[in-house]
Amino acid sequence: MANILRRPGWRISERHVTPERSFLKRREFLKQMGFSSAGLLALSVAGCSKASDSTAATAAPPVPAPSNPVPVETNTAATATSKVFPAPRNPRFNPAWQLSDEKVAGRYNNFYEFSTAKDLVYRLTGKFITSPWPVEITGLVEKPVTLDVQELVNEMELEERVYRFRCVEAWAMIVPWTGFPLQKLIAKVVPKPEAKFVRFVTFMRPDQAPGFRELSDYPWPYTEGLRLEEAMNPLTLVATGIYGKPLPKQHGAPVRIVVPWKYGYKSIKSVVKIEFTDKQPATLWETLAPIEYPFESNVNPAKRHPRWSQETERMIDTGDRVRTQPFNGYGAYVANLYPKV
Fold first, then answer.
1. Which CATH number covers residue 116?
2. 4 — phi, psi (to 5°)?
3. What percent of the chain has pLDDT over 90?
4. Where are the beta strands (DSSP E) in 104-227?
């Protein structure tokens, strides 16, 4: 076995170092968002530290209509992040639904970078380093920038929203996400007129996640995409927390996208890059099986998956089977995006 150079605990990998040009653009970007000089200084310091089936299906709860149609990480970043949790719950997304059990939701995860077995993912994330975590925002935008997630968590106005989450595998959960609308970030980078799509990319670290080696024929890294108007919809959330706490690694720490009217695989985890483009981006699941996992992938009980019905879904904690709603119940917010439906 080759000798491994052991670095001191205070050293970080060169790939985590933000280029000087990106750092300067970041400071300019944050100032344009209205952050103070003192806040920028604090950010600089923080950034350097570190879901039994019942026999009868019942109707799923209605969605409220819109009011207006082992490398080791240090604990510094986690401690700073925890100070903004729990965030206040948005009253527009505070339905009287029973939340899915937090422990069950944390041990039932699709995250193929770690394992294809849902109940093993949370056991395999120990080596996964999530701080620092720079996110590059690039492509057809006027103000490209690279920001560490900690900066967004500390300076964006976070809120909690209770959303229904529907997997293409016909299971579901109801969870409280913490985050902010993606449209707020998009507005700051100013997409160019020719930008029509947003491409999301997650991490590629075979040394930290065993699924890369087990599924070596997959087109890694995991990529997903949305039309720009879908990304700009008020429902689309940049999530940094769940159940009033920072995102656990198995849920896509430290930052993921949540698109509640689409099947779960569209809600990409652990995002490292957001790219604006004029062409529909290739996505991992559509590349592997385009008939089963098309780009749009809106929740639609009338359209069966080639291998199973989508008319009902199983709640992961209770086992109750409920009827699936078009757009996962969020039609009041998004049906206008799909006039042919």
1. 3.90.420.10
2. -110, 125
3. 72
4. 134-139, 145-148, 159-166, 171-181, 197-202, 223-227
